[in-house]
Amino acid sequence: MENQKKSASLLHHNGVSYVLPFILITSCFALWGFANDITNPMVKAFSKIFRMSVTEGALVQVAFYGGYFAMAFPAAIFMRKFSYKASILLGLGLYALGALMFFPAKLTGEYYPFLLAYFILTCGLSFLETSSNPYILSMGSEETATRRLSLAQAFNPIGSLLGMYVAMNFIQNKLHPMDTDARAALSEAEYVAIRDADLATLIAPYLVIGLVILAMFFIVRFAKMPKNGDQSHEINFIPTMKRIFSLPRYREGVIAQFFYVGAQIMCWTFIIQYGTRVFMAEGMTEQDAEVESQLYNIVAMALFCVSRFICTFLLKYFNPGQLLKILAIAAAVFTLGVIFFQDRMGMYCLVAVSGCMSLMFPTIYGIALKGLGDDAKFGSAGLIMAILGGSVLPPVQAAIIDMGTVMGMPAVNVSFVLPLICYIMVMIYGQRSCRRSRLGIE
């Protein structure tokens, strides 16, 4: 009974119930989780289909997370001018448009139209994330805001798991089994035939999710949603930015979020390349090694999901900064295992890293936005722009992987030095946040 009362207090405040809007907006968390994690394996898929290097394939992540960066502050201005609901609807509309653009991109038979589709899709995701995170924070008392956001974010990996499952079973398993080297030896006519068949397989899930997002658009459109934080429509962009960036916990939170997102995307994208090397060394074919790696990726996401719920519970008893620091230290230790082990132990460490990452995004978000009030709309945009880390850092890691070997070690192992650096930065933010909380300073 007591637990039910505590749970209810998360979604009730001043006599207002936020249960229905919380459910609808939390569904959006799952929907962008799906988009994120159906996309990570596509770096490898596009590299194979278009006979490209890992670095060229990583342009998928540049386009994907570039959309987040480009639209974060326009989304915040739009949200401030209109409302949370209007911004969420625009986000859903752009998400659907980008997904449906995969069909004309397939007709061109070229790589770059897919990058445009990804960019438009993630412009929509930028609107969704910029709006949904502070909206969830506003649905109740400030004392329970970080726990409420962590609970909503716990449904994000459920969408991610579905995205990974679809990527493995409806894309990777159905692509032509011919490996990358063999495709390079094909005649132009043979290559085009296999490429077009593979692209038809690849776009199908995106077209389906585009229709699902359209349905979600109309559900949100006709649902009654609270107008928390929608009272002020003045932009005051420059004064607001000066005000929030003067706060150390916010300014440092943007930096920490940049490194965290970069680490997350690197670990979830290049687990395919890492596992392919490990399993091919055991005698598997390239395609079987890729599928086996994706299975490990799904296990990593399942661990991430379970850990998110556990860590949300632990936030009732631990200072958010303290728990963030502990998990960042654990992630750094496991990443050292990823670097130095060259067999399945390295894969086990890489899976374990996901359990450590589960709390990082919402906790950094909650700490950085604490006490910002209506300024949280622009504050949210700065934190979403920090997702640029997922666009900037993966191509650097891909360039290291393309080197083959570094100092006598497999380059894919050495490349995980980049996530290691990122977790150290998150650890520093957790430590500083914990110290500020203990001293009662901003």
Polypeptide structure, described:
The longest helix is centred in the middle third of the chain and has 35 residues. The chain has one domain: Up-down Bundle (Growth Hormone, Chain: A), CATH 1.20.1250. 79% of the residues lie in helices and 2% in strands. With 442 residues, the protein is mostly helical. Helix 6 packs antiparallel against helix 8. A two-stranded antiparallel sheet has the order 1-2.
Quick structural gist:
The chain is mainly alpha-helical. The chain contains 23 helices and four strands.
Order of helices and strands: HEEHHHHHHHHHHHHHHHHHHHHEEHH
Sheet with most strands? 2 strands, antiparallel
Cα(first) to Cα(last) distance is 36 Å
CATH architecture: Up-down Bundle
> Which fold name corresponds to the CATH topology?
Growth Hormone, Chain: A
CATH class: Mainly Alpha
| Coarse morphology | globular
Mean pLDDT: 87
Helix segment tally: 23
Percentage of residues in DSSP E strands: under 5%
Number of strands: 4
Supply Rg.
Answer: 21 Å
Q: What is the name of the CATH superfamily?
A: MFS general substrate transporter like domains
Percent helix, as a range, is over 70%
Instruction: Quickly count the domains.
Output: 1
Low-pLDDT windows of residues: 1-8
Structural class by sheet pairing and helices? mainly alpha
Task: Identify the strand order in the major beta sheet.
Answer: 1-2
